[in-house]
Amino acid sequence: MSHPCLRCGACCAHFRVSLHWSEADPDLGGTVPIALTEPLRQHERAMRGTSQAQPRCVALEAEIGVYSRCSVHPQRPSACRAVTASWDPDAGGPAQPSVQCDRARTAHGLAPLTPADWVSIEATIEANARDGDGQTLPGHRETLAQLVADGGGAPIMFLQAPEASSGLAVGHGRGEGDALPEQTAPSEAPLSASPPGEDGAPA
Question: How many CB atoms lie under 10 A from the CB of residue 170?
Answer without folding.
Answer: 14
